[in-house]
Amino acid sequence: MELSHYKHKIIEVVRFHEVDLLGVCNNAVYFNFFEDARIKYLHDIKKIFPMKEFLEGDSFFIMVHNDCDYIESAHLEDELNIYTRINFIKNSSFGFKHIVENNNTRKIIARGGGAVVHINSITKRSLPIPQEFYDAVQKFEKHVEIIKST
To answer: Which CATH superfamily is domain 3-146 in?
Structure first.
């Protein structure tokens, strides 16, 4: 997927406590970058397209899958662009894709993704995603797959 398909970006700087003795960013830190990007994405999309039912009330989202392919390492004080998009929405889950780019070299150094499920905080069972979320994401993203079963 081309970077042009990613409309959302945050910047992360690799910090001292995120690297090993050689100054290489630990692999697990990328999942923290992805989490920061997902949260910022959802808050930003809610600002653009106000949604009454989303991220409010008796529901929350829980990660059910994470993955990352490491292409090159990041190092201490590298500035990284974390590009994020939603690539699919199902009845009660949706997925993210991420690209990590070194801001100085413009090289893509990692790719990843994940899936989250909409959960009722009382029953702990999955909940349908509100239609307003589908509508907002489809307005924001040009390349999102909608997979609704009836």
So the answer is: Hotdog Thioesterase (3.10.129.10)
Q: Whole-prediction pTM value?
A: 0.92
CA distance 108 to 70: 9
How do residues 32-53 score in pLDDT, each as one tens digit?
999 999 999 998 998 888 777 6
Angstrom distance (rounded) from CA 121 to CA 61: 9
Look at residues 39, 13, 2, 8 and name the one whose alpha carbon lies nearest to residue 103.
13
pLDDT above 60: residue 100:
yes
Beta bridge partners of 6: none
Q: Could you state, in order of their start, the residue ranges of all structural domains in the chain?
A: 3-146
Q: Which is nearest to 141 in space by CA: 97, 93, 108?
A: 97
- Measured from the Cβ of residue 57, the count of other Cβ atoms closer than 10 Å reads 11
